[in-house]
Each structure stands twice: as C-alpha cells, then as structure tokens.
Write a structure and sequence with these properties.
- The protein is of the alpha/beta class.
- The chain is 55% helix and 9% strand.
- It has 26 helices and 14 strands.
- Strands 7-6-5-11-12 form a 5-stranded parallel beta sheet, sandwiched between helices. Strands 1-2-4-3 form a 4-stranded antiparallel beta sheet. Strands 8-9-10 form a 3-stranded antiparallel beta sheet.
- The structure holds arginine (ARG).
- Residues 156, 159-161, 196, 198, 372, 390, 392 line the site of arginine.
C-alpha cells in the first residue's frame, strides 16, 4: 500500500466541516471534496453543500446525491445549476476519487472511482478491522482525546420486577437496550448499562405474605425466580376474591379504606410499610429475594451476551431524596391533596394528556412515579451523565412523560435534568411465550429456539459432524433468530413472534445472516493467502467486476450507516444494510472465485482481500446488534 493515501482528506477540515469525520468515514471524505468544489463553482457555503450530500438510495443512482434545491440558491432553476455543477466540476481536485458527476434533473449524482476504492479503502478496512465504521460521531467531546473526552450516557433497560413475570416487554427492552448501549459505545460514548429492578412497592408486601404461607427454603434456593413467581401467583389468587369485593364496594360508592386495612391486602400493606419504615425483619427477607433473583437474571442475560454495569432498583431510592423532591413540588404548588394521598394534576400544568398521578399514597408509602423522580435525581448526582435513555415498552409512555414533566415543572437543575432524559419506546410482541409457562421465561425461550436450530443443523450430517460444539452454535443461531426478528421492523411496531419464520434460512433472518458470515469463514479455511498478501494485493483484476464494485461501494457506506443509526436509533437501519451486503455477497461468489481460481494466486489474493473486508463489516455490524458470528453451522 502506498504511503500517501489520496483518500485522506486535507487536515484543515475540522474547522470548516464540524460534522465531518473524514479520517474515519470515507463518504465524509468524498463529501468534503465535493463541497469544496461546488462551493468554488457556485460560491455557496461549504457546510450547506456538505449537509446536502445524501447517500443515494440504490447503488445504481450513485454513491452520493445532491438535491440542488437544498443549496437554496434563488433566481436560477435547480436543473440549470445541476448542469453547471456537472460540467464545471474539476475532477483533478478530488485526487481521482470520483467519476465525472452526472446532472439528472434537479439532482447531481456522484460515483466513486472504484480503482481508488479498491486500492485504498479495502486495505483501510483490513487495517482498521474491528474498529472500521466506529467512532464517527458525536460521542466524543474532544476528538483528539478519545479516552478522556467522552460523553457519558446512561442506558436503563430490561428492568424486570422481582417475583412478577419476566415478560416480552422485558425481553425486548433487553435486546433494544443492549443494541443501543453497543451503538453509543462504538460511537465514542462512555455507557453505563443500568438495570432498574422493580424491587420495591406494595407487591413485595404481598410477596412476603405469600412467603409466610407457601415459602419453601429448598425450592427457593434451587430456583429462586421460579419459586418466587409461584408464591406470588398463589398469593394473588388468594387475594383475588378480596380484590373483587373492594372493587364492588367502590362501585357502590363506599369508602374502602376500612376494608383494605384487613385481610391479605391489609397484611401486605403492613409488610410493605414495615419495609419502608426500615423494619429489619421485613428487610432481611426482601434482601434475600433480591440477591438471589439478581444472580438468576445475570445468568440468563449472559446467554444473550448482555451484562449490566449496575443493578439499581426502585428500592435504592432514598427517602430523603424523595422528600426533598416533594418539598420542591409543594413549594411550587405542583402537588395537591387527593383523598388522603398527594397528587399532581398535570391538567393544571399545561399537560392535559397526562391527567393526574399520585405522588404519595394515602398510607404514606411512595408511588412508582415518586420513586422514578428520586431515582433520576440520584443518578444525576452519582453519575452527572450527559444523557439518559429509558428503554421501556410503550404501555408506559404516559408514566415516562409524567416523570419527565414532573422534573421539568420542578424548575432549575431539575428542568435541566429532564432535558437529558429520553424515552425509547417500543411496541408489543404477540405470542412470545414458552412451553412451560412463565417461569424463567427468557431462559426457556432461548432454549426452545436453540433446540429448534439444533434440529435444523442435524439435517445436514456432513456439516454437522465438523462442528466442534454444536450446542453452542445452535444457541448462537437461536439467539440470532430471536434478535433479528425483533429488530427487523421499526421498534414502535408490534409484531408476532413466529418461530417458523425467524428460524428459516430464506428471507432476511438471523440464520441467513449467520450463514453469510459462516460461508466466508469456510472460504478462508480453504485458502492459504496470508494477511500480508491481502493487504498488498494488486486490485486491478477487480476493476471490471460490477460485483466487486458493488461490494466495495456497500462497504464504503458502513461508517455512514453507523452515524445515521445514531440518529434513527433503529436497529433495522443496520440490519437492512447488513442484508444488502449479504445479498450482494451471495450474488458475487460465482463471479469472483477465491479458492483456486483459474486466473491464479494474485487474483485470488485480491478477491480474498475484498471478502475479508466484507466479513469484517458483517462482524462489526453483527456485534453492534448483539449477535455472535459463527464460523461453522
Ligand atoms: N420495572 C418496570 C416494569 O416492569 C419497568 C421499569 C421501567 N423503568 C423506569 N425507570 N420506570 O414495569
């Protein structure tokens, strides 16, 4: 590889193009050359051109595309300007990276000169390897100091409830939250992955009642989450007739306060009150439930390659933090008494859709909302994060909006805090349930899909026998199936859990993506081209191949895709991209043979380099999504 890379943009760029990452994003390098040149031709502002250069939707329509009206030039028709740009564009100034631009109506289309792409980009990708495409965006406060100048982001995700059901909402939150954490991390942020457990509230009072009636020490140690859920289900059943009686009484307009202080509910409330008041007996039991549940959660998350920086929870919110928040609210007249409780009537504070919400319950215990307010304040104090995401299903849209609004209304530092917070909402999954019911839901789900994939693998005995650890591979494939299905649409959309479809090799599925990767791995097992040969390959043989050019041009987009994903926060932006790459790969194999091609070793080396780069891009993309690539399947 030549010492001087003509694709390296001139050094002055950062001042001129603050949004550009030319050193890491090849499309930004092109954008800079084009913007410089168009600004010279039309005397327009460089950043305006830069911002107007979009990726063309399909490879046929270009690599970059400028819609001329975006230059906001008055008095001359965009079509005429497009022609002017195309005809006066001086290619010499772009170091031969671009072909002659094409005027097409109000558009100007730009195509990369593939010769340069092969010679410089392919070795660049091989060289950057697991870093290719990353650190291209706003996560760095100081671009010269990647290790110290990073923004700090809290991603709160999954956040199941102890003893209650771990449901599809918690699974989706885990998948999406992990993806977002990865995305921010590779974009230069310092990410704190936080699991905010539902480990406080009246239901733990209820659970404690259940434990007294049905608790079994041995059963609990064997399967903490399962046993606690079992107890919880039983005690809820005991409570049901009582609950119905309250509802009926309320319907008749009776005051239920007396009733509710008796029976199971009375006992549960007393238990929880004990916890809130710091009663050691009540807390001891609760701590035991919590600790063992966390151990269990950790094991399950680990199968998905997910870990948390911190397990926080509703229980960790200090009484004094919440009292302080309440006093701020009271002073501002935000809260008012309501039937013995305290509430905020959002209708009176410019947010009618949020109606009213209880801050503190009638018997003095805290509400879910108040705990969230306190938690946010404490996180700010402990982490002084720059941003914070709440990855929570859309059923809680109103709750999170109330949380943000409450803080905003509290003024000053609290308003500032509310501005850092963002809800990442997502739709429901229908039919995500496992054979044996709800116990250890996620664990069983993974096992079930993995077993299914294992059976699929067994059908090809020759291949199967060469796989060293088939259980492990089946698990990775199963997880990929689940993850890819979950991330295939926009996250706000509901979808149906469909085992058949997600495990299929046809269509854009997890197994298909894994197959694309494994197929490349198998090629590399069959050749003995060294990394040095690939880096120094003579790429001239690729220049006339449309397949090679397409692969190159798709790979060139990867850093830009990552940067865009940071704006959309949609995993399917990356997924769609990876499938495009996978399809292009499978279309190319017949034309670009790598294993002993008739054209000889030098040609094999050039193709191997191209495929190695493609494999790297696949790996990097799969990694961000949370998939573990397999080499054989
Ligand atoms: N534990 C809650 C539930 O399962 C989700 C927590 C969402 N996060 C929050 N900060 N409220 O419903």
């Amino acid at each position: 590889m030549a010492a001087q890379n003509p694709m390296q943009a001139p050094g002055l760029t950062q001042a001129t193009y603050p949004d550009a990452f030319p050193e890491r994003n090849p499309l930004d390098r092109l954008r800079i050359y084009i913007a410089d040149e168009i600004s010279r031709i039309l005397d327009v502002e460089k950043t305006l051109v830069f911002g107007g250069l979009d990726r063309a939707a399909s490879l046929d329509s270009g690599d970059l595309l400028l819609a001329v009206p975006r230059l906001r030039i008055q008095g001359i028709k965009p079509g005429e300007l497009a022609v002017k740009i195309a005809s006066q564009f001086d290619l010499r100034l772009t170091s031969g990276q671009l072909k002659k631009p094409i005027a097409d109506g109000i558009y100007v289309r730009f195509f990369i000169e593939t010769k340069y792409g092969f010679n410089y980009l392919v070795p660049d990708i091989l060289h950057e390897s697991s870093q290719y495409g990353f650190n291209t965006s706003s996560g760095l406060l100081n671009r010269d100091e990647p290790t110290t100048g990073r923004k700090r982001m809290i991603v709160e995700f999954s956040s199941p409830n102890i003893a209650k059901r771990f449901h599809a909402g918690h699974v989706r939150s885990a998948i999406i939250g992990n993806f977002l954490s990865n995305l921010y991390e590779v974009s230069g942020y310092e990410v704190i992955r936080m699991n905010y457990l539902g480990d406080w509230g009246r239901q733990y009072g209820l659970l404690a009642c259940g434990w007294k009636r049905y608790g079994d020490e041995d059963a609990f140690v064997k399967d903490p989450i399962g046993h606690l859920l079992e107890i919880y289900v039983k005690i809820c059943a005991d409570f049901e007739p009582e609950d119905k009686a309250y509802a009926a009484a309320r319907d008749r307009g009776e005051d239920t306060a007396m009733l509710e202080s008796q029976g199971v509910l009375g006992e549960a409330k007393a238990n929880f009150k004990g916890m809130e008041d710091g009663d050691e007996e009540a807390l001891k039991l609760w701590r035991k439930f919590r600790a063992l549940s966390i151990e269990n959660f950790k094991e399950t998350y680990a199968r998905l390659n997910i870990s948390f920086t911190v397990y926080s929870g509703e229980s960790g919110v200090l009484p004094e933090t919440m009292e302080m928040a309440e006093s701020v609210q009271a002073k501002l007249g935000l809260t008012e008494p309501f039937d013995g409780a305290t509430c905020i009537d959002f209708k009176k504070h410019g947010a009618p859709k949020l109606s009213e919400a209880i801050v503190r319950n009638r018997n003095g215990t805290t509400s879910y909302l108040l705990r969230d307010i306190g938690a946010a304040i404490q996180r700010e104090k402990e982490y002084s994060m720059d941003e914070m995401l709440y990855v929570v299903m859309n059923e809680q849209d109103v709750h999170l909006n109330r949380l943000f609004k409450s803080l905003e209304l509290m003024g000053g530092e609290y308003t500032a805090l509310s501005k850092k917070m963002k809800h990442i909402t997502f739709g429901r999954v229908a039919g995500m349930s496992s054979r044996k019911g709800n116990v250890k839901f996620l664990d069983e789900l993974i096992t079930e899909v993995a077993e299914y994939m294992h059976n699929v693998m067994r059908k090809n005995n020759d291949k199967y026998e060469q796989i060293e650890n088939p259980e492990q591979v089946a698990e990775h494939l199963g997880i990929s199936a689940i993850l890819v299905q979950d991330m295939s649409g926009k996250k706000i959309h509901d979808y149906d859990f469909d085992l058949e479809r997600m495990t299929s090799f046809e269509g854009d599925t997890g197994p298909y993506l894994q197959y694309a990767h494994a197929r490349l791995a198998s090629i590399f097992r069959r050749i003995d081209i060294t990394p040095a040969e690939m880096l120094n390959a003579d790429f001239s043989s690729l220049e006339n191949s449309t397949h090679a050019a397409n692969l190159l041009r798709i790979m060139m987009r990867w850093p830009d895709m990552v940067a865009q994903t940071l704006k959309t926060l949609e995993a399917n932006t990356i997924l769609t991209y990876l499938f495009k790459l996978a399809h292009e790969l499978s279309a190319s194999y017949d034309h670009l043979r790598v294993v002993n091609p008739p054209e000889g070793r030098a040609v094999s080396a050039a193709r191997a380099a191209l495929y190695k780069a493609a494999q790297q891009v696949l790996r990097n993309g799969m990694g961000v999504l949370g998939l573990t690539p397999v080499d054989r399947m």
